[in-house]
Design a protein that fits this description.
- The complex is a heterodimer of chains A (252) and B (131).
- The C terminus of chain A is likely disordered.
- Chain A has 7 helices and 10 strands.
- In chain A, strands 1, 2, 3, 5 and 6 form a 5-stranded antiparallel beta sheet that branches. In chain A, strands 8-9-7-10 form a 4-stranded antiparallel beta sheet.
- In chain A, strand 2 and strand 3 form a beta hairpin.
- In chain A, helix 4 crosses helix 5 and helix 5 runs antiparallel to helix 6.
- Chain A is α+β, with helices and mostly antiparallel strands and 252 residues long.
- Helix content of chain A is 39%, strand content 25%.
- Chain A is elongated.
- The longest helix of chain A has 30 residues.
- With 131 residues, chain B is mainly α.
- Helices cover 42% and strands 7% of the residues of chain B.
- In chain B, strands 1-2 form a two-stranded antiparallel ribbon.
- In chain B, strand 1 and strand 2 form a beta hairpin.
- The chains are: A alpha+beta (252), B mainly alpha (131).
- Chains A and B meet through strand 1, strand 4, helix 1, strand 6 and helix 4 of A and strand 2, helix 1, strand 3, helix 2 and helix 3 of B.
């Protein structure tokens, strides 16, 4: 067993693979190399054999390396932390064994990027919730008159009602945002919420030529909702959310 | 909150790349190509942190925070924002980089008990992305 193993960043076509003089993840920060099979190649670097503990830098490094390569190239990003025993295994178990699927994904994702949009309600949304739901307004008054100890369970009940009401609001608002943006996207994935006042956390697969239109649509909805939510927009990043292989659902 | 590369243009806060630990985790932790059994970098507390941050919306802590927030709604006219739960946590994690800090964050969040792992909704229009 070797003392080094091979960390894999992504898969791309050999003819589009640029030379990148940069160091990789892990304690060795080994230089980036290519492992080739046919027309495909994997971008890799050496890491020490055995369990590797990720650092914050490693997480950013993995992302930065893929982002720096994506311009003018279609790259299939590997999940963070993919380590194979050696280069031969990368060539045989990844590039050769999954060649057809990888080729198909590369074709499908050609000229497409991932854009992430997150919307979070301002705290003032709670005013809307109270105003719309008499039960919440009433309970709110009651709780306010009690000491925190005496009103503990009513407080929880109140918070739960607020959370439920917010959830209904979130579904309506998220639906409206999605309807507005979907015409400009090829595909979409809804992610887990990142915040207790989250409205939407979504990744969109967008044709590079349509980024401007998607941008304009996102801007328009952010403007129209500025009083109620704030929006964060990240990208373009490689299509992390749209590269599941067979047996999964991304292209089912 | 590290927003080095982000800019406010119009009404969107834009970042060309993920601008914080949570953003990066959200992007690369359970996404990307997976081949067989080869994903095996140890994330120690980092993974636990993200999962718990996802759970917390349906927790008693959240309910109490919501209750407190609606309680003081009319009393204070200016809207002071609730602490940004996730961002607070992740900036703490960013400073710590070790297991201790992250584990501590987990215990602070859920009292250390294990809850069922929620999966992000995977397909378009499965809109209820949390409970």
């Amino acid at each position: 067993m070797s003392t080094l193993e091979t960390y894999v960043y992504g898969v791309l076509h050999v003819d589009t693979a640029k030379v990148v003089a940069t160091s990789g993840v892990g304690p060795l920060m080994g230089p980036l190399r290519r492992v080739t099979h046919g027309s495909l190649c994997a971008l890799v670097s050496d890491v020490p054999a055995g369990e590797l503990t990720a650092t914050r830098e490693d997480l950013f490094r993995h992302t930065e390396i893929l982002q720096s390569l994506m311009h003018g190239t279609t790259i299939l990003p590997m999940r963070f932390g993919t380590i194979m025993p050696d280069d031969e295994t990368v060539a045989s178990r990844l590039l050769e064994a999954r060649e057809d699927e990888l080729e198909q994904l590369l074709e499908e994702l050609d000229g497409r990027v991932e854009l992430t949009l997150r919307a979070v309600y301002h705290e003032s949304i709670l005013g809307e919730v109270v105003a719309e739901t008499p039960e919440i307004a009433h309970l709110n008054e009651r709780v306010r008159e009690q000491s925190p100890e005496a009103g503990y369970y009513e407080r929880i009940r109140l918070g739960e009602l607020v959370a439920t009401s917010l959830q209904a609001k979130r579904e309506r608002d998220a639906g409206a945002i999605i309807d507005h943006l979907q015409p400009h996207a090829v595909d979409m994935m809804i992610g887990a919420p990142q915040h207790e006042r989250a409205v939407l956390n979504a990744a969109f697969l967008v044709d590079e030529r349509r980024i401007e239109r998607f941008d304009a649509a996102a801007d328009a909805i952010a403007r129209s909702q500025a009083e109620r939510m704030r929006f964060r927009y990240t990208g373009p990043v490689p299509p992390f959310s749209f590269v599941e292989l067979e047996g999964s659902t991304a292209w089912g | 909150m590290s927003v080095t590369a982000s800019q406010q243009r119009g009404y969107l806060q834009r970042s060309p790349s993920p601008s914080g630990l949570y953003d990066v985790l959200d992007l690369i932790l359970d996404k990307g190509l997976v081949i067989d059994v080869y994903v095996r970098v140890s994330l120690i507390g980092i993974e636990i942190l993200t999962i718990d941050a996802r759970i917390v919306i349906a927790s008693v802590d959240t309910y109490l925070r919501f209750a407190e927030a609606v309680n003081r709604l009319d009393l204070t006219e200016q809207s002071r924002d609730l602490p940004e739960l996730v961002e607070d946590l992740t900036s703490g994690a960013a400073r710590g980089k070790g297991r201790g800090v992250l584990q501590g964050a987990k215990e602070a969040l859920v009292g250390g008990d294990d809850k069922e792992k929620p999966r992000p909704a995977r397909r378009r229009r499965t809109s209820s992305d949390d409970e």
